[in-house]
Design a protein that fits this description.
337 residues, mainly alpha, Hect, E3 ligase catalytic domain fold, 2 domains, 3-stranded antiparallel β-sheet, 10 helices, 8 strands, 49% helix, elongated, binds zinc ion
Length: 337
C-alpha cells in the first residue's frame, strides 16, 4: 500500500511534529475558530479550501476529513497516555488546549442531539421496493424513479431529475403512487412466474448479472489501487498535491457509482431461482421488498413510468411499460424537451 509506506504528515506540522508549518498552522487555527464560533465542519473545510490548502496527501478538505483532523489530539500538542487520558506529547500545538476541549465538547453535544432525534422519530419511512434499483425510470427523461412522499404525505415514486437544493434539475415531472406501481408490478411478475420456461430464464439472467457483478468489483479494486498510490506519489514528489486532489475527486466519483452498481447487482444475484413455480410465488409473497426488487431485476430490463393520471386509483393503459428480459432490450429514453 503506497499510502502506508510513508506515514502521512499531520496538517500544520513538520513530518516529525517538532515544529509548526506556519501558514498551515495559521489556517488550521482559523478553521478551528470558525467551528468553535458555531460553524459546521463542512464550513471549516470550505474555508481551508478557499485559502488554497489541500490535505497533506493532496485531498480536498471535506467535513469528514476536517472532523478527523479536529479530533486528532496532536493538533493541540497532546497524545493519549497509558490510561487513555490525553497528556502532553512533547511537541508544539497549533491550537490551545482550551480550543481542543471546546471541539470535543461540540462533537459530544452533536452526538447526543443525533441520538435524541433518533429516539424521537423511531418509525421508519415507507419501504420503497424499487427506489434504488435503477429499474423503474421516468418515461420522459430516463432518470431513476425514487421513493418520495407527496406533499400530502403519501408514498410515491418520483423522477429523480427534479430540482433539489444542491442542483437545478430539469425534469422531475413524473410521479406515481407507490402502492399502485408496486401492486401492478407484483401482479405482472407473479403472472410471468407461472409461465413455462421462467426458471431457465431466471437462471440465465442471474448468470449474466453475476458476470457484471464480478466486472464491477474488479473495476472498483482498480480504482481503489489508483487512489492508494496517489498519496505515495505526492510524498515522493512525483505529482503535485493539487493534481492528486483532482485525481482523488474523480476516483471518488467512480467509486461511488461502482459501489451503487455493486449493491444493486448483489441484490439481484442473491435472489433464489431454483424453486418450483409455486415455491417462487410463495417466496415472492413473503419476501422483503428489497429481495423482490432483486427478482424483478432478473425478469425485467426496465420499467418506464409515463405521466398522467395523478391521484387516479387505477392505472391507465400505457402509463407503466414493462420491458421483459426475454424480449429485446428497450431503446434508451430520449429526453423530451
Ligand atoms: Zn424525468
Amino acid at each position: 500500500m503506497g499510502r502506508d509506506a510513508v506515514a502521512a504528515r499531520l496538517f500544520g506540522f513538520t513530518p516529525d511534529k517538532s515544529a509548526l508549518v506556519a501558514d498551515e498552522a495559521q489556517a488550521l487555527r482559523e478553521a478551528v475558530e470558525l467551528r468553535i464560533n458555531g460553524g459546521t465542519r463542512a464550513g471549516a473545510a470550505a474555508r481551508l479550501n478557499a485559502l488554497g490548502f489541500v490535505g497533506t496527501l493532496g485531498s480536498t478538505f471535506t467535513g469528514k476529513t476536517v472532523a478527523r483532523l479536529f479530533r486528532t489530539p496532536a493538533i493541540a500538542g497532546l497524545k493519549p497516555g497509558p490510561d487513555g487520558k490525553l497528556i502532553d506529547a512533547g511537541h508544539p500545538g497549533a491550537i490551545t488546549l482550551e480550543q481542543f476541549a471546546q471541539l470535543q465538547a461540540m462533537d459530544a453535544a452533536e452526538d447526543e442531539k443525533r441520538d435524541a432525534s433518533r429516539k424521537a422519530n423511531p418509525q421508519p419511512d415507507y419501504d420503497y421496493a424499487f427506489s434504488s434499483t435503477d429499474l423503474v425510470v421516468c418515461g420522459l427523461c430516463g432518470a431513476n424513479q425514487q421513493g418520495l412522499r407527496t406533499n400530502a404525505g403519501n408514498p410515491g415514486y418520483c423522477c429523480s431529475a427534479g430540482p433539489r437544493a444542491d442542483r437545478p434539475g430539469d425534469c422531475g415531472r413524473v410521479r406515481i403512487s407507490a402502492e399502485i406501481l408496486e401492486d401492478h408490478l407484483g401482479e405482472e411478475i407473479v403472472a410471468r412466474l407461472m409461465e413455462p420456461g421462467t426458471q431457465k430464464a431466471l437462471e440465465k439472467a442471474r448468470g449474466e448479472l453475476e458476470k457484471q457483478l464480478a466486472a464491477a468489483r474488479a473495476d472498483l479494486e482498480t480504482v481503489g489501487q489508483g487512489l492508494d498510490n496517489l498519496g505515495g506519489m505526492v510524498l515522493r514528489h512525483e505529482i503535485t498535491a493539487a493534481s492528486a486532489a483532482k485525481a482523488r475527486q474523480e476516483g471518488a466519483q467512480q467509486q461511488k457509482a461502482l459501489r451503487r452498481r455493486i449493491r444493486i447487482l448483489e441484490r439481484a444475484a442473491a435472489t433464489p431461482v431454483s424453486g418450483s413455480v409455486q415455491e417462487l410465488v410463495t417466496w415472492w409473497n413473503s419476501a422483503p421488498s428489497q429481495a423482490k426488487a432483486g427478482l424483478a431485476m432478473l425478469m425485467l430490463h426496465r420499467v418506464d413510468v409515463h405521466p398522467g393520471g395523478q391521484g387516479a386509483r387505477k392505472l391507465k393503459p400505457g402509463r407503466v411499460v414493462l420491458w421483459w428480459r426475454d424480449r429485446p432490450a428497450p431503446p434508451p429514453i430520449r429526453r423530451v424537451a
